[in-house]
Amino acid sequence: MAQGFLTLTIRDYDAEAAITRLRVPTLTAANFDAQAGLRQTFLTTALAMTEVPAAAGVYYGNEQTNDMLPDDDPLSQRENKWLVQYHDAVTAEPGHFYIPCADLTLLDPNDRAHANIGDGDKVDAFVTNAEAFLETEASNAIVVDEITFVAR
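Given the sequence above, the corresponding structure tokens read:
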């Protein structure tokens, strides 16, 4: 069976697009409703990690689910990213992806290079939903290891 993908496109303050392609379960008639719910919950928590929670274009298969407008906050810059590092829950193979326009208020006050995993709020919600929805190349669940702020 072919691997499913979700493509998240965010436009920053300068209307520059940043694109992240994520592996997700392939949609079937048997899992459609469950996956649609997981997708929406994941997107809500992923966008809460950014400066632009309402400015994303999401492509799931060939479906565009919302508009892709530039953000009106000058702090919203695609070069400020969260590097999400994870490993395959079965094989322990490492992997990573980026979320553009990082909301830096989510940095850990005791470790200012990383998002505050354990905050009981936005970061933990994102981790929980990423682990429930995203997959590795081997179609296994991911385990988020750390989320690091990077700038390009």
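The chain has a mean pLDDT of 86. Try to locate this feature in the token string yourself.
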